[in-house]
Design a protein that fits this description.
Blueprint lengths: L1 H19 L6 H41 L14 H7 L6 E15 L5 E16 L2 E7 L3 H4 L7 E8 L5 E9 L4 H4 L12 H6 L3 E10 L3 E8 L14 E8 L16 E9 L10 E12 L2 E12 L2 E15 L3 E11 L8 E14 L3 E11 L8 E9 L1
């Protein structure tokens, strides 16, 4: 570049001298001089652009220096690339992924005490030894305070084997395959609290092994468990059995439908035989579920019945959702009806929930507000306003 500028300047001086002294130049020299003048104009344009760019960069540097309240930077700040960051999360054998969920609630009740709660403090670690061998561990320290019957902060701890195409096998402690809302991550619930049947029949962990098959049009799960629930050793030789099947009928070849492609219809069952002829320990649970989402709309519902400690329990819920502002503000209407003991008189209770969900960043950061109108059982006949904030990462 410097050599070109020198030659341009030399030709310019020569042209000026020739003009001043009326020196006639050969035609070929004039042609070369004209060409050089064109190059000079282009160089001037390049120089002007470079000067504007330098001025813009200088103004940005001054703005940044002003924002951080410092003068000239005294040291260079190194920012790693995305590839370098990806390599930094590789620890031990292959990759480690970390996540978590933090939830805070405030409940205002007409009859009971108002209460602020740190509801969940989940920390999840998942590793991949090979593409077919993975592991997961999740803890929630606050659960020991939330439920005084628990003896450990451990939630999930299991291995996942993926050697069979379209299938996986989980071995360890995890949720039993009962109830769609019970299995759904707490970070992705549409209402602050799950429905009664989802909390009673689903949302329970146990130690065992489970096979899951997942195809585009069907998902199925089947498992065998100790039956003692979370963080407890088995106390007998008998095991509990559970299975769940979910159909996506409008994903079958020939039945594809854009509006109904996410319609899911499912059922599940949990069974435990009696371990002692003198004490009723048999447990039976059977449930149905339906779920549909499209654009701004969603419909969800479940019905389940079962028997625990010789008391028949059954209930259902139905829920409708609509995004008032797409991906930002969602309205929810939910009806939850349940009976804790079918044989007891006046034991039915109904919850009517009106909710709003405001998403700052999908489910990763959201605010929820629920008004719950309760009717039925005396100890549950108390309206509530519940607010919640969560961060999931």
């Amino acid at each position: 570049m410097n050599r070109k500028i020198f030659l341009v300047c030399l030709f310019s001086l020569f042209q000026t001298y020739a003009s001043a002294n009326a020196v006639e130049l050969p035609p070929e020299v004039n042609a070369r001089m004209t060409a050089m003048e064109g190059k000079i104009e282009k160089l001037n344009e390049v120089i002007s652009h470079q000067q504007a760019f330098i001025e813009n960069q200088a103004s940005q540097i001054k703005a940044l220096q002003s924002a951080i309240g410092e003068g000239k930077p005294t040291e260079t700040v190194y920012l790693p690339t995305k590839e370098e960051l990806d390599r930094k999360v590789n620890v031990g054998a292959e990759k480690l992924t970390m996540g978590g969920l933090l939830q805070g609630w405030y409940t205002y009740a007409r009859e009971q005490d108002d209460m602020a709660r740190v509801r969940r403090t989940e920390l999840k670690f998942a590793g991949e030894i090979t593409k077919d061998l993975k592991w997961t561990v999740m803890i929630d320290p606050v659960q020991v305070r939330e439920d005084n019957t628990r003896r450990s902060i451990l939630q999930d701890a299991y291995f996942t084997f993926g050697y069979i195409p379209k299938h996986k096998i989980d071995i360890g402690q995890f949720k039993i395959p009962v109830s769609e809302e019970g299995l759904r991550s707490s970070a992705k619930l549409d209402t602050i609290e799950r429905a009664f049947i989802s909390r009673t029949f689903g949302d329970h962990r146990d130690i065992g092994a489970m096979l899951t098959g997942d195809w585009d049009f069907i998902m199925y799960q089947g498992g065998i468990f100790n039956g003692e629930e979370q963080n407890r050793l088995d106390v007998n030789d008998k095991k509990d059995y559970a299975w769940r099947v979910v159909l996506r009928p409008f994903r079958f070849k020939g039945l594809e439908n854009e509006v109904l492609k996410d319609l899911e219809l499912g059922m599940s069952q949990y069974y435990r035989d009696s371990n002692d002829s003198t004490v009723f320990t048999e447990k039976r649970r059977f449930g149905y579920e339906a779920r549909w989402e499209y654009d701004r709309y969603s419909l969800k519902g479940e019905a389940a019945f079962g028997q625990t400690a010789a008391s028949p329990i059954w209930g259902w819920y139905g829920q409708a959702g609509y995004y008032l502002i797409p991906k930002k503000l969602q309205g929810i209407l939910k009806v939850d009806s349940f009976e804790q003991n079918e044989r007891a008189p006046d034991d039915r209770a109904n919850d009517f929930t009106l909710g709003l969900n405001y998403f700052l960043d999908d489910y990763h950061a959201k605010f929820q507000l629920n008004y719950v109108l309760r009717q039925g059982q005396d100890d549950l006949n108390d309206n509530q306003v519940i607010g919640a904030v969560q961060v999931a990462y």
